[in-house]
Amino acid sequence: MEHPPIAKKAPALNTWPMEKKPRIKPRRAAGFKEDRVEPRQAADFPLKLDSGISATLRDVSASGLSFETTSVQRVGDVVNIEIDLDTPGGPMKIKAQGQIVRIETHGDRTGVGVKLLSSRLEAVNS
After folding, report:
1. By the 8 A CB rule, do 99 and 112 touch?
2. Is residue 20 within 8 Å of residue 14, measured between CB atoms?
3. So where are the chain's domains?
């Protein structure tokens, strides 16, 4: 009996430009369980943390997001996040609060996983 050929797994998308993503075990919050329900969408938007620190959004879902920054972050900290959007209806801003659940170091950059606690979309008055 002849078996059908085994499908090859598609290569993973590399979100870390011009370098291979290092295999580093991330630090996770106590009791953190990898249990994603919502699909994630890759992104590449600037964002600001409440402390005025700039970062880059890497992916987002209904329950969380990840960003990359050069600043020091800690698992368990609560952060306020703002993302400016340019929409056909005019400028909008996403304001969110989340808890850091994962930290991954990539050279001088830090990947940060955030569980969203609250979020809202606001029109920006020009």
Report:
1. no
2. yes
3. 41-121
Stretch 51-74: mean pLDDT = 93
Residue-wise DSSP of 28-90: E-TT------SPPEEEEEEEEETTS-EEEEEEE-SSEEEEEESS---TT-EEEEEEEEEETTE
Q: Are 64 and 99 in contact (CB under 8 A)?
A: no
Cα separation values, 8 from 4, 5, 11, 21, 46, Å: 12, 9, 9, 21, 35
Whether the predicted model's global pTM rises above the 0.85 cut: no
47 close to 67: Cβ distance less than 8 angstroms: yes
Identity of the amino acid at 39? P
On whether the 41-121 domain is CATH 2.30.22.10, my answer is no
Reading the block at residue 49, the tokens are 């943390």
- The answer to whether 113 and 26 are in contact (CB under 8 A) is yes
Of 20-24, 36-40, 75-79, which gets the smallest average pLDDT? 20-24
